[in-house]
Design a protein that fits this description.
Length: 286
């Protein structure tokens, strides 16, 4: 889950840290790291066999002492929907593979509206649960091997991915488990560089594939983080694709309130609403 949705650019690596980490993790080629990462996740056949994911749990927004019910659904080839609920109000962000929309009731907007182009990119990236490290070339991405660095006093392989949409993702991969421990994104948002960091933990296997059940994210360098904890992850469950489509706008009502309902009585013409009655009674037959 990404910070902009309800993240390590190439940070400068200090030489002493790099040297120390390098001594504890042998240099490997990009292809070897990606191959071992893919195998560690569960192998390509098992990963590709997963067509849908439903992840439920809780979310604690950064800087707020509240806990929201969290529900995220993914469907190949590129759809995602995220629901976060608190006190009966639900924030929704969704992407159907081409366009994105949202509902933001805590901002006073209860109807669906388009997301920004930048947020749509973030949702599209969220929908790729394989990560761009797998099949990067087919996705229009390129991978640069930045060697080894220290993450929290432990070595990690560093791969920078240039995405087709122009964003950068830098992945930090544990040299023993070959699973990601951190990812930093670099985006251009309204003309400014934005860096967000996501930390992964508590990996568990679902349908033969490892997924992180603990995800903390926020602005790079900030102590304020949003934390998502999954209780349940279900693969290949039934998903109705209508959930990714933007809801239709509510029907407009006449000025002054709800539409007038007229009941027709047997044998009589329907009674007109008061404001539609003639000013004088119609003439009667003599």
């Amino acid at each position: 889950m990404r910070p902009g949705v309800l993240a390590l650019v190439a940070v400068g690596v200090a030489a002493p840290h790099f040297a120390a980490a390098q001594s504890r993790a042998p240099a490997l080629s990009t292809a070897t790291i990606v191959e071992r990462y893919t195998a560690a996740r569960g192998g390509r056949p098992a990963i590709e066999a997963i067509r849908t994911l439903r992840m439920t749990g809780t979310m604690r927004p950064g800087g707020f002492d509240v806990q929201l019910k969290y529900d995220e659904t993914l469907d190949r080839p590129g759809s995602v929907r995220i629901d976060a609920t608190l006190q009966g109000l639900t924030v929704v962000e969704s992407y159907n593979g081409s366009t994105g929309w949202q509902i933001q009731p805590f901002q006073g907007r209860k109807d669906a509206e388009d997301v920004s182009a930048d947020d749509a990119k973030g949702l599209a990236e969220e929908a790729d649960f394989e990560t761009p490290l797998i099949d990067a070339a087919a996705k229009g991405a390129t991978i640069e091997n930045l060697g080894v660095t220290d993450i929290d006093n432990a070595p990690a392989y560093v791969l920078r991915v240039k995405l087709k949409n122009g964003d950068d993702e830098t992945w930090y991969i544990d040299p023993d488990a070959f699973l990601p421990v951190r990812m930093v994104t670099h985006q251009r948002v309204r003309g400014s560089d934005v860096y967000n960091q996501t930390d992964f933990g508590d990996y568990e296997k679902v349908n033969g594939v490892y997924f992180p059940f603990e995800i903390a994210s926020g602005p790079k360098g900030s102590t304020v983080q949003q934390r998502v904890t999954y209780d349940t992850v279900v693969a290949n469950g039934s998903v109705d694709t209508v959930i990714f489509a933007r809801p239709a706008a509510p029907a407009a009502t006449p000025s002054g309130g709800a539409p007038t309902t007229v009941e027709k009585k047997p044998g009589l013409a329907p009674e007109r609403p008061k404001d539609e009655r003639p000013a004088t009674p119609p003439p009667t037959k003599g």
